[in-house]
Amino acid sequence: MPQPNFRFDVDAEGVALATWDMPGRSMNVITPEVMAELSEIVERVSSDPGIKGCVITSGKESFSGGADLTMLQGLGAEFGRLAKAEGEEKAMGFFFEESRKLSLLYRRLETCGKPFAAAVHGTCLGGAFELALACHYRVLSSDDATRVGLPEIKVGLFPGAGGTQRVSRLMQTGDALQMLFRGDQIRALLAKNMGLAHEVGKRDEIVGKAKAWIEAGGSAVAPWDLPKFKAPSGKVYSPGGMMIWPPANAIYRRETHDNYPAAKAILQSVYEGLQLPMDLALKVESRYFANILRSKEAAAMIRTLFLSKGELEKGARRPAGAPASNLRTIGVVGAGFMGAGIAYVTAQAGMKVILVDRDQEAADKGKAYSQQLVTDQINKGRAKSADRDALLARIEATPDYGALAACDLVIEAVFEDPKVKDEVIRKVEAAIGPDCVFASNTSTLPISGLARSSARPAQFVGIHFFSPVEKMMLVEIIKGRDTGDAALAAALDYVRAIRKTPIVVNDARGFFANRCVGAYLLEGHLMLAEGVPAAMIENVARMAGMPVGPLSLNDEVGIDLALRIVKATKAQVGEAAVDPNQERILTAMVEREGRLGRKNAKGFYDYPPKGQGSKRLWPGLLELQPEPLDPDRIDVAELKHRFLVVQALEAARTVEEGVVTDPREADVGSILGFGFAPFTGGALSYIDGMGARAFVALAGALEARHGPRFAPNRLLLDMAESGGSFYGRDPVKAAA
After folding, report:
1. Residue 663, preceding bond cis, omega within 30 degrees?
2. Which of 93, 488, 517, 723 is least surrounded by Cβ atoms within 10 Å, i.e. has the fewest?
3. What is the pTM of this model?
4. Tens of pLDDT along 647-704?
5. Residue partners of 729: CB distance under 8 A and separation at least 6
């Protein structure tokens, strides 16, 4: 029977090779068609006496990224249709059986009576790694591109094709739980050391090694199907088990605050599964998987962090018809912390970088940042000296603006001062060619205002990176009033080349992300002014789903920067635009106490020297609170709502003002840019998930208690009245 997704051959020794190579795709993904073909392969291998066993490998640069999550979305839609037509019980039965088909297929492979081996090169994640785990032998390529793992938790799911049960039988329970909770991608040698693989070899050797294992009589029985199998950590109900499970439960609650149902399902699946034989354990896992697959958290996270993120990275907002950019040489003006980071990620992507600063010493210092980053990777075994030499060779550090003449794109990353930027813009434009695009990395200054210094405003665009550049995945691309399609396309092509996620926003003070972040920081400052204990502010923010508390975040960005922004806003917009309580606290911290944040080891926290303990909240914060409140009398649920609602309201205002025109960008940007509670799917999904009417009622109650910053805007009021949603709006009308 023809199999378009697999090539199937049997060699003279009777060892089959199934090469997964989906036509028309750059990467293999698990689809219903792939599952059907794999099932046919398993049955053929099992039934043919001339076949000793089978090696599964990939014909592409990577093995597979896992399941096509749109397939899982389709299951949800079919459940809804069946529930209406035939009742929820019938629909749930269908949903359960369909959602466990992959698990049953892998179990059939594992128990078919013939040995299967996986020869893996490149990415092998999620359901694809669960396939490898179901094989009786795993050989990984030693190439640096090879990564294995189960990252489902990052999109609100958990491994539902046997991953929780096989990993917990291959590794110590604590290590298995950590792997499943974190969803990390694991390099080949580490995977072998963890017990997840049997061999590591050169790329051109892995198929041969896998075949050799089968030829040598490799066993077709998985370890857990042997009568005397014992889990690495022993029985759940044993002295050893009791050293694992109570702490595991405590760690789960500390890290998730019960916001992530998938994390709890992992804990339950492993706990219950380890007490059962494999087939029953897989059925338990499937029941939890079906339940999580229908959760609102999974639906929101899949939409934002998989589908929307992928669409934006593939150019969903790229102007139609704009020619492809041929970006070979990138200029970076300003070799400070941000500029040095931009230079590094650009050179890492293979492009030549001209790094310019006021003198050679400053430019060299910026280049040294790249050297240090790669050296750190070398020390961790993640890079070689040759990689460092090649990357540094692509960075030319110089004080000469004339060196920018051959650049295709120049990004300025100088001090946030319009006069400084004006001077840089004029110097750069005097040196670059007519087709070169100029981008500003400003985080607060409107692009249209900066473009007034340019002789070519159509070639002027904003590319706003987040700090630290090498770690943060989001990049805001800002369209100025006169920014042309070619400049916008070039900016998007550049962001794609450096493997980051772009969102496109229209010009406004603070753009999108910083407006929402500013609202979050303001709420933390105002809670402090009200007398809420600082520790409570920080802890409740994390309970709400934020990665760090507002006071800790302010220390990272700089309290002095926050004060400068407040003063600039007051001067340019008026006193009414600034909350006096926030200004009082920031002024006291910076001007009276000299506490600037982490940069001088004194902020809302005290930072001891490296190796001498962890940061601690500054005791002097009590003096900034005229009337400290009794924590036992504070409504924790209200504090959590304040943190999320104030950010979501600001996101809704950016939509009404036309700063954001696509809800995908607001949601992806809010999670990747400032960590807005990922389990909600993002700031606008938080509103849609609650429903506009309920959200407006909640915001109105907060407005009555805490003031007009919680007032719902006209767009939200209209949506509440009409029953509308952000994802139900017409994007064409929204952009008009």
Report:
1. no
2. 723
3. 0.91
4. 999 999 999 999 999 999 999 999 999 999 999 999 999 999 999 999 999 999 999 9
5. 663
Counting Cβ atoms within 10 Å, is residue 71 exposed (0-12), middle (13-18) or buried (19+)? middle
- How far is 30 from 697, CA to CA, in rounded Å? 43
- Give backbone dihedrals phi and psi of 620, rounded to 5 degrees, phi first: -65, -10
Q: Which residues partner with 539 through β-bridges? A: none
Q: Domains along the chain?
A: 6-294 (3.90.226.10), 329-506 (3.40.50.720), 514-722 (1.10.1040.50)
Q: What confidence tens digit (pLDDT) does each residue in 368-392 have?
A: 999 999 999 999 888 889 999 999 9
Q: Is 614 helix (H, G, I), strand (E, B) or coil?
A: coil
Q: For residue 152, indicate whether it is catalytic.
A: yes
Record the tokens describing residue 430, joined without a space: 């005097």
What pLDDT digit, counting tens, does each position of 564-590 carry?
A: 989 988 888 888 889 999 999 999 999
List helix spans (H) across 216-336.
239-242, 245-256, 261-273, 278-293, 296-301, 309-313
Residue with tokens 């930027």: 421
| Cβ-contact 554, 521 below 8 angstroms | yes
- Selecting among 37, 130, 429, 665, the annotated active-site residue is 130
Name the burial class of residue 334, with classes exposed (0-12), middle (13-18) and buried (19+) by CB atoms within 10 angstroms of its CB: buried
Of the listed 152, 297, 523, 538, which one is catalytic?
152
Q: Is 703 known to be catalytic?
A: no
